[in-house]
Amino acid sequence: MDKAVATGDPQAVLQVFNQLIDARFMTATSPLTDLNQLVTEGSLKRLPDGPAGKKYLFDPKTKQVVLR
Questions:
Q1: How far is CA 42 from CA 19, 30, 35, 47, 51, in A?
Q2: pLDDT for residue 7
Q3: Residue 58: per-residue pLDDT
Q4: Which of 15, 24, 43, 61 is least enclosed, having the fewest CB within 10 Å?
Q5: Taking the model in full, what pTM does it have?
Q6: CA-based torsion, 22, 23, 25, 31: positive or negative
Q7: Domain residue limits, the chain
Q8: What distance in Å separates the CA atoms of residue 1 and residue 18, rounded to the nearest whole number?
Q9: CA-CA-CA-CA dihedral for 26, 32, 35, 41, to nearest 10
Q10: Is residue 33 within 8 Å of 60, Cβ to Cβ?
Q11: Residues forming beta bridges with residue 59, ordered by sequence position
Q12: Is the pLDDT of residue 44 over 90?
């Protein structure tokens, strides 16, 4: 994730987020409800900031991270 954040490319960050989430769904016993769970579970050190005026959010319906 650090390299994706360092590039400043939101698409790269989304791709890494979604890869982490896919891996988590294969191993976790409880569903992901919030991106902060990735931090508390140790998958990420911190959540990256989104581009100006936007946030990275987890959409539980699609099980993907989106920018809004």
A1: 15, 15, 12, 11, 24
A2: 73
A3: 94
A4: 61
A5: 0.80
A6: negative
A7: 2-67
A8: 11
A9: -70
A10: yes
A11: 64
A12: no
- Are the C-beta atoms of residues 20 and 5 closer than 8 Å to each other? no
Does the pLDDT at position 46 exceed 90?
no
What DSSP string describes 3-68?
A: HHHHHT-HHHHHHHHHHHHHHHHHH-SS----THHHHHTTS-SSPPPPSTT--EEEETTTTEEEE-
Structure tokens at 43: 């998958």
What pLDDT score does 2 carry?
A: 66
Tell me which residue has tokens 């140790």: 42
CB atoms within 10 A of CB 36: 13
Which three-class secondary structure state does DSSP give residue 15?
A: helix
- Phi first, then psi, for residue 40 (nearest 5°) are -65, -30
